[in-house]
Amino acid sequence: MIRPDDKVIVNENNIPENSLKAFKRNNVLYIEGITDHADLSIFDAAGKLILKKRVSGNEDQVYTGNLAKGLYTVYISINGEQEYKCFKFIR
Fold first, then answer.
1. Would you state the torsion angle of the CA atoms of residues 36, 55, 26, 85, taken in this order, to the nearest 10 degrees?
2. I want to staple 33 with a disulfide (CB 3.0 to 4.6 A). Which of 17, 20, 38, 53 is the partner?
3. Rounded distance, CA 69 to CA 2, Å?
4. 90 contacts 70 by C-beta, under 8 angstroms
């Protein structure tokens, strides 16, 4: 389990590439393809947990306009971390 003070380095995903999509537009991060509940965590470049949110449904949104400019890592875990996807975005 990832703790807020952990630094996150993830270089693999075990969710099929086409089943879960994420994109950022106009300070909003869109997550598509979640068929059940998932936990979304956003970490800054230093590995500090910035936001943790439960997401569900086919599409969910996270407002990112209040984040400082920089590089962020998003970690989405489904089924208690048995399935996960990790990606980065720039604010």
1. -70
2. 20
3. 24
4. yes
- Could you identify the residue written with the tokens 């962020």? 72
| CA-to-CA separations, 28 to 1, 4, 37, 65, 91, in angstroms, rounded | 27, 23, 20, 7, 10
Distance CA 36, CA 82 (A): 13
Give pTM, 2 decimals: 0.74
Return the structure tokens found at 53. 């949110």
* Model confidence pLDDT, tens digit, residues 27-66: 888 888 777 788 889 999 999 999 998 887 767 888 989 9
